[in-house]
Amino acid sequence: MKLLLLAACVALAAAWTPGPRDVCNPTDVRGGTLLLAHERYCQLFYSCDLDGNQFVTRCPVPSLFAYGVGTATCTIYGTSDYLCPKWSCGPTDIGRRYPDVCCDRYFECTATGKFEERSCQVGTSYDTTNEVCSVNNVCNDDAFCWEKNVATGINICVNSPSSNGDPCKYRTQGWDEDRLCPVGTSYDQTTCSCSTFNEGCSSSGLTQAQYRTNKEPDSQCRASGRMDFASNNLRVVSDKLGRDIDHYFFRTGGFTVNGFEGVFDTTQNQVPYIYDYYYNDNTLYAPLAITMSVRFDLPNAVNVGTTYNLLENRWTTDQANTHCNPVTLRFTATYNGLQGGQRQWGFSVTARGSATGINIESTASGTILGTSSDYFRLVFIFNGQISGTVTNRGQSGSINGQSITLGTDNRNIGTALLPNKCGFALGRGLSGRIREFNVYEGCSNTNTLG
Prior knowledge:
By secondary structure, the protein is mainly β.
């Protein structure tokens, strides 16, 4: 016990110093990951542009920045497991103190992962080196100490209100499009940041109440996100809420729509896909179902063993970029060649969950036959374990033919799929068509899916 106490005292005796600043990665930014933790102040965070520039923003009061699996936003003290990633606050850090943007205050680690703001006595300021308030300490308030800059404002502001007046967005110098504030906040020019709590502001265009409703269990198994290919704008509709949901898409060359399906064309060395930002850091809970209908238009020189990534929550396939690792959801189809005059396809699903806090991966797979013009409908189900079916829907895409049940390893992967900081890429490199892509959050009666 004495050794443990001594170790704790030694840990607290070592002065805390800020580590290196994280660097913006343009590839991650294109994938939708815009926010990084500040190296010194947990009240601040960086937003990135495509040129690698960083712009500082302060979290609304009273909140701190949280960054980790499924989280990259400002949260109320103590409500996130990933609060203040640059500040250590484990069992041996109780009592450790960290700087506030204002010199007369500091934050103290009061329990594992929990911080509380403290005030120094009048006439003193917080000394980071000795972790005490001192009358002789020399300290300058940070520019984001709004409380001390009310009269003069922040000296340099690279942000401005949204071009169309949307309170949930802002414009940053060097970025040619409006940017979303962290979920639940709106932009305030007087503080040069998204500093006002606003329940109506979210990445989906939904209030927090609507967002929760869209994820709740539903015996009718209505879609929480149904992709509509009726126009080139790719609408996504929640049948639960009876309204559109804001989904932001990136589309490559080779992808078009023909009124009722997406067409993926690999001619001229194109690698077509669409990328849906909505599922970036979006936790998908059990019960969950996803349906996808796909047709394969194989080029003449297709090789046996060619695999198409029908769905994966990954922005880039560059192995040097690990920001989206691990890929926690992937659907693939592999061409296995001809059998009895028909084409054989091997479908595979891989999903990663977080049972008891440990990342666990589970797989399901199976093979099915079809002609060159047949559509195949994949139904993925997650309810602690994963399962699924693939059905040959014929040339019309609406008539059920042969159906197979995917064989699984029957692993329990927990109550939610492990999110990562990437959205969904659909049809990467596919030569063919996707007619249906629906997500059913809270689907408690999968028999309704057909």
